[in-house]
Write a structure and sequence with these properties.
560 residues, mainly alpha, Cytochrome Bc1 Complex, Chain C, two-stranded antiparallel sheet, 59% helix, globular, iron, electron transport
């Protein structure tokens, strides 16, 4: 019996696949696009998955939302819930078709409740992942040139995510969502001149009207998702165009990217991660009950439930309204100026969000930095930026906690008024305290890094020289550790030219430069200078530790 050996010259392609590939290549240049994208390099770090969680959560929202639109009726027409349908507590009650279809879907459509709960959890995770992703971008300085535009795109996506969540949260027309709409109507009416007209136009008459649910349905399933899809495309295009940022490390510079190609490594990882996110959301939807609207009942303007809070991403607005004293309402010329609603509902959120959106441009104005940055900052090395971010977050945390002041009072048996006054004080002093403490922590960590880069790790082993001198032997850092500690650029306050030239003529633009200098001093006057090549060389001459054969960190410093 003879053995038979077959020799293959490589993988074969079917004629149909080859013809299809040739068709696409000759008409849209598919091979060029595939070659370009397949060779795109993406760095590998766990924090980059935060943006993917947001993206995959939005995909789950689209898939489950398509299912829900098949059964939801976006109408405020009054009907009576069937007497023979579940749940028993709803039988025969008068309600809108929107509420009735939501309850019917949850109890009588196979998989309806599961899809509703997956959709709601995905919405919460979507906004949460975007928020944490933007925090990562902010604290690492990933918004610097050339990514300022992409920062604004991401910020707009966050605002659209809040709009999508609020519009979807209001669709069931239950007591809880109806109260949220009533608050939104109050904020809109508090705006001078345009408020009442805007409310009448939005609701089609006096609140609640008969048009708000169909209009919110259009906003929720068409306008906002369409804008989000368009901006996601822009966001991903800019990521590919600018190339991905990366954390500092040996061999990583502003002119390269160290990582894995898009195909097949990154594609396989992203595909697997999508199913992980989908699986976790499915488990949450199956095992964790959320937004059981039949427990609240259909919307009735005369009912306001105690302990009612919106979803977490809108809780800051609720807290802001609860903290504002009610005495700041005035009647001027026959018109009511409701500062007790206008300030917490419009001014405070506007200030916080505007500061967040414009921070990249403020920092660029201060530093006069016009170079491109593709290597990320360590948050400790940008002390004012990090402290500012923590201060803004602390303000949001206070507002979120204030939105649940009634629950805190009942659960811990505390005075509601005392809790409210405590939060009123904290909203002013906590951001300042957090800024100061965070800045000092960052400076302390910079000093620690400086000492570590110069002397290495302490070993606790003390030796004595022949001369009688005692020293502690330090373990030298490896290439990666030292690179991370010394590779960042020094940041110093901006120096400006004199106010007047030699002829005593005032220099144009001096006021602008003076403003830049003052802000720059606020950013960088308190600082710890990075290690210089001379200091690094001197630290290796004391005999505290052995020289490394190659030191990329020193080469980087000398080149800088």
């Amino acid at each position: 019996m003879s053995a038979r050996t077959e020799v293959s010259n490589g993988p074969t392609t079917s004629p149909a696949a080859a013809a299809g590939a040739d068709y696409l290549d000759t008409r849209v240049g598919a091979s060029k696009m595939v070659k370009e994208f397949a060779r795109k390099i993406f760095p590998d770090h766990w924090s980059f998955l935060l943006g993917e969680i947001a993206l995959f959560s939005f995909v789950v929202l689209i898939l489950t939302g398509i299912f829900l639109t098949m059964f939801f009726v976006p109408s405020m027409t009054e009907v009576h819930y069937p007497d023979d349908a579940l749940p028993v507590t709803m039988q025969g009650l008068e309600m809108s078709e929107a509420f009735a279809s939501t309850v019917w879907m949850s109890h009588h459509v196979p998989g309806g409740l599961l899809m509703r709960q997956i959709h709601h959890w995905a919405a919460l995770i979507f906004v949460g992942a975007m928020t944490v992703h933007m925090m990562r971008v902010f604290f690492t300085g990933a918004f610097r040139k050339p990514r300022e535009l992409n920062w604004l795109v991401g910020f707009t996506l966050l605002i659209l995510g809040l709009a999508a969540g609020f519009s979807g949260y209001s669709l069931p027309d239950d007591v809880l969502s109806g109260n949220g709409l009533r608050i939104a109507d109050g904020v809109l009416r508090a705006m001078p001149i345009i408020g009442s007209y805007g409310s009448y136009m939005l609701f089609g008459g006096e609140f609640p009207g008969t048009d708000i649910i169909p209009r919110l349905f259009t906003v929720h399933i068409l306008i906002v998702p369409g804008l989000i899809l368009a901006l996601i495309a822009v966001h991903l295009f800019l990521i590919v165009w600018h190339k991905h940022t990366q954390f500092p490390g040996p061999g990583r510079t502003d002119k390269n990217v160290v990582g894995f190609p898009l195909f097949p490594v990154y594609t396989a990882k992203a595909g697997g991660f999508f199913f992980i996110v989908f699986g976790v959301l499915s488990l949450m939807g199956a095992l964790m009950s959320i937004n059981n609207v039949w427990a609240y009942g259909p919307y009735d303007p005369s009912i306001v439930g105690a302990g009612a809070q919106p979803d977490w991403y809108m809780l800051f607005l609720e807290g802001s309204l609860r903290l504002m004293p009610g005495q700041t309402e005035f009647v001027l010329g026959g018109y009511t100026l409701s500062l007790n609603v206008l300030i917490p509902g419009v001014v405070v959120p506007g200030i916080l969000f505007t500061a967040l959106a414009l921070f990249p441009f403020i920092e660029a104005f201060v530093t006069k930095d016009t170079g491109e940055h593709h290597v990320l900052d360590r948050p400790r090395n940008a002390q004012v930026r990090t402290a500012s971010g923590v201060a803004i977050l602390s303000a949001f945390f206070v507002l979120n906690a204030a939105g649940a002041n009634d629950l805190i009072a009942t659960h811990f048996n505390l005075s509601l008024n005392a809790i409210t006054w405590a939060f009123r004080i904290l909203i002013f002093i906590l951001p300042v305290i957090c800024f100061i403490v965070t800045k000092r922590i960052c400076l302390g960590l910079q000093r620690k890094d400086r000492e570590l880069a110069l002397h290495g790790h302490e070993t606790g082993r003390v030796v004595r020289f022949a001369s009688g001198e005692y020293i502690e032997v330090h373990r030298p850092l490896d290439d990666y550790e030292r690179w991370v500690l010394v590779s960042h650029e020094p940041r110093r306050p901006v120096e400006i030219a004199a106010e007047e030239d030699s002829a005593g003529v005032r220099r144009p633009g001096y006021r602008k430069d003076r403003l830049r200098q003052r802000i720059s001093r606020f950013f960088y006057e308190d600082r710890v200078e990075p290690v210089t090549p001379a200091e690094l060389a001197a630290s290796h001459s004391h005999g505290e530790h052995d020289e490394l054969e190659s030191d990329p960190a020193r080469e980087t410093l000398e080149a800088r």
